[in-house]
Amino acid sequence: MALLLAGCAMAPVQEMSDARQALLAAEEAGAQEYAGDTLANARAYLGRAEQALSAHDYERAREQAELASAAAREARELALERMQQRPRE
Fold first, then answer.
1. pLDDT of amino acid 68
2. What is the pLDDT of residues 49-60, one digit of tens each?
3. Which of 3, 12, 64, 79 is most exposed, with minimal Cβ within 10 Å?
4. Cβ–Cβ contacts within 10 Å for residue 73, how many?
């Protein structure tokens, strides 16, 4: 039980890193152009995660970082799909 509580009290360093990397991957895949709304959601989640982290609300920071990662992965997938579907010139 003590380990579980200790895990919750630690800063979500890995989750924050994962979220930032997922955002970069989405941007590199063209999400700004092809999945802008979803990418904006990912950025908003990451912003809330960073605010929570600054406030030492690690549980909320972890939750928001995980949501940011998921939204960024979705944005990347959408961008790649839409890029393939666009008409060739």
1. 98
2. 999 999 999 999
3. 3
4. 18
The two three-digit tokens of residue 61, written as one number: 């920071």
In a domain, 38, yes or no: yes
Domain assignment present for residue 49? The answer is yes
Task: Decide: helix, strand or coil at residue 12.
Answer: coil
Q: Containing domain of residue 50, as a range?
A: 13-83
**Residue 67 domain-assigned?**
yes
Q: How many domains does the chain have?
A: 1
